[in-house]
Amino acid sequence: MKNLRNEWLLLPLFLLISSCQSMKAFNIKTFDEDQLEGKGTLHSITVNSNRIGQECLFLNAEAENNWRHQYFMYVLNDKYETLQVMQPTHMDKKTCYSQLQKIESILKSESQVKVCVRDELKKKTLGPDEEDHFVQFSSLGNHKVAYDLLTLDSICSSKKCFSNNSVWVNTCPGFKKQ
What is the value of pTM for the model shown? Predict the structure, then answer.
């Protein structure tokens, strides 16, 4: 009878410990060309919303004095390295900031989101004239961009998605075709 009482005392402790464990802040799953029938490499990233930063930059396209806006997203991984993601199309200022606001509403709607990106995930190597680029993630601090540029496909919460994947033949498994 005494053992049964001890087991009942351990049950609330077990429930407390299991409920306090949180989901992983960052998880990446890669789908290579073989899995996607030769259509490139895709990565599905499940990440806490506070690990995503975004901005619209005004850039000189191909150094030809062809100025345009470009959307960038920054994702902080579990090793506190930043992945830089870019929207593949050039846009005007209004379109870029509209995209930024749509994605911000997805980020604010839930604590975790899924981001689908394309291209090979490679560590960044700096040339002799290049400097490290750091991104501020509010309370998580300032972290270095550690990987080559990736291309944005989609970002989804459980209720909303945003993508420009109408131009893509294939998207990450589990993502909605927009």
Answer: 0.80
